[in-house]
Structures are given as structure tokens and as C-alpha cells.
């Protein structure tokens, strides 16, 4: 194991509304009951503030400090509240990792397709069955404490994803600008080529017209000269 950090995670719970379905704590029943009562009241209050009219079914990750020692971490989804209590010095991402594992395991066991078996359960009905799983998830996070500390937080992951998306958008935008510039250069080159061809065509047509006029003038001069010679019967009249 990578090193145990005993008593950093001290309590965990799964509840449906105000009803605790399963809980676990390595401490005495009195301590467990105290954590349970406070976690149940706090999760109900927090669940109302965590929901918004625009997104009433969104998952909620929240933390609540009860004293100078413990922090209650909540994951609220649908009608269920997942709670883990930690010492203050623990990083939130470790507690939230534990909550995610608890939720995933719970939904896998009891909330599969056409397999919602929690509706008719009484309070603490899953203590024997799911309580050991809560213990396993807490111990997993304690056993892998150092490894989990090195993992990026949810906020870091979101920021990294945001930066990646912005970078991709920037690249696409730059590519579009380059493509537009290339297209403009091609169009400008085509316009200049068309202008040169038009100028050459105008010069060619002017030359043809000049040749025709010159031929016409020479023809007229020649005809006049012939007539003049015919009238004068020679060069001199």
C-alpha cells in the first residue's frame, strides 16, 4: 500500500432524502450517530440551495465545515445524498474521489436499468450490504492518498479542457484567415491577369484598326493618283 493516512476520512453515508440507507465509520456508534444526524440535516438544507430552476437535476458537489476539525463533503444527485466526512487537512479532490466511487458503485448495484430497488427500503436497510463497500472506498482513497493528491483537481481539468478548446478554436480561426488571405491573393492575381489580357486585347484591336485605316488611306491615295494620271495623260498636266 502507498501509505495509510488514518482518520483523514472518518465517516461516509448514502441517504435517500432524509432516510439514511447505509453508513460507515471506524469509530463508535455514538460518534457515527452524531455524524449521521449532522450530515442528514446538512445534506437536506444544502440540496435545496444546490439546485437551480435552470438545472434542477444537476449533480452538486459541496463542502460544509461543522467545527474546527471536520468537513462534510456532499455529492447530491437526484434524490440521493452521498456524504463523506474528512479532517480539514485533507484535499477536497480526495474526498470527492471517494464520493464519486460511492455514487458509481451505488448506482451500479441498485439503480441499473429497470433495477431501482431503493424505493421500498427502510432506514439503514443497506448497512450490512453496502456499508462494507463504503468502507472499501474510504480505505481505497486512504491507501492511494499520495497518488490521488497528484491527480489534477476537477477545476484544473476543466481549465485544461477550456484552454485546449480555445487553442483549437484559435487554430481553426487562423487557418480560416490564412485560407481567406490565400483566396484573396488568388483572386487579385486573376484580376491582374484579366486586366493585362484586356489591355493587350485593346492594343491588338487598335493595331488592327490602325492597319485598316492605313490601308484605306493608301488605297484612296493610289486611286486618286491613278485618276490624276488618267486625266493628265502623264505625270505633268
From TrEMBL:
GO CC, alphabetical: endomembrane system
Signal peptide: none
Pfam families xrefs: Longin, Synaptobrevin
Topology relative to the membrane: Single-pass type IV membrane protein
Keywords, sorted A to Z: Coiled coil, Membrane, Transmembrane, Transmembrane helix
Tree of life domain: Eukaryota
Compartment list: Endomembrane system
SUPFAM superfamilies: SNARE fusion complex (SSF58038), SNARE-like (SSF64356)
Record flagged with keyword Transmembrane: yes
Ranges of residues in domain Longin: 13-134
Coiled-coil boundaries: 177-204
Family: Belongs to the synaptobrevin family.
PANTHER family, A to Z: SNARE PROTEINS, VESICLE-ASSOCIATED MEMBRANE PROTEIN 9
The protein's name in its UniProt record: Uncharacterized protein
Species, as recorded: Adiantum capillus-veneris
Amino acid at each position: 500500500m502507498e501509505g495509510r493516512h488514518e482518520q483523514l476520512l472518518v465517516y461516509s453515508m448514502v441517504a435517500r432524502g432524509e432516510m439514511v440507507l447505509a453508513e460507515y465509520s471506524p469509530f463508535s456508534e455514538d460518534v457515527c450517530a452524531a455524524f449521521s444526524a449532522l450530515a442528514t440535516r446538512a445534506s437536506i438544507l444544502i440540496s435545496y440551495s444546490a439546485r437551480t430552476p435552470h438545472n434542477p437535476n444537476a449533480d452538486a458537489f459541496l463542502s460544509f465545515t461543522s467545527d474546527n476539525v471536520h468537513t462534510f463533503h456532499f455529492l447530491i444527485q437526484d434524490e440521493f445524498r452521498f456524504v463523506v466526512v474528512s479532517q480539514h487537512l485533507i484535499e477536497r479532490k480526495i474526498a470527492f474521489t471517494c464520493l464519486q466511487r460511492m455514487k458509481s458503485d451505488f448506482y451500479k448495484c441498485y439503480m441499473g436499468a429497470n433495477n431501482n430497488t431503493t424505493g421500498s427500503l427502510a432506514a439503514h436497510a443497506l448497512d450490512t450490504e453496502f456499508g462494507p463497500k463504503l468502507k472499501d472506498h474510504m480505505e481505497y482513497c486512504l491507501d492511494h492518498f499520495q497518488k490521488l493528491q497528484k491527480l489534477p483537481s476537477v477545476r484544473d481539468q476543466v481549465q485544461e479542457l477550456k484552454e485546449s478548446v480555445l487553442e483549437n478554436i484559435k487554430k481553426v480561426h487562423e487557418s480560416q484567415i490564412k485560407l481567406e488571405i490565400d483566396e484573396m491573393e488568388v483572386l487579385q492575381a486573376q484580376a491582374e491577369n484579366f486586366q493585362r489580357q484586356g489591355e493587350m486585347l485593346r492594343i491588338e484591336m487598335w493595331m488592327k484598326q490602325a492597319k485598316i485605316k492605313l490601308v484605306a488611306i493608301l488605297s484612296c491615295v493610289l486611286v486618286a493618283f491613278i485618276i490624276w494620271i488618267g486625266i493628265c495623260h502623264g505625270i505633268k498636266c
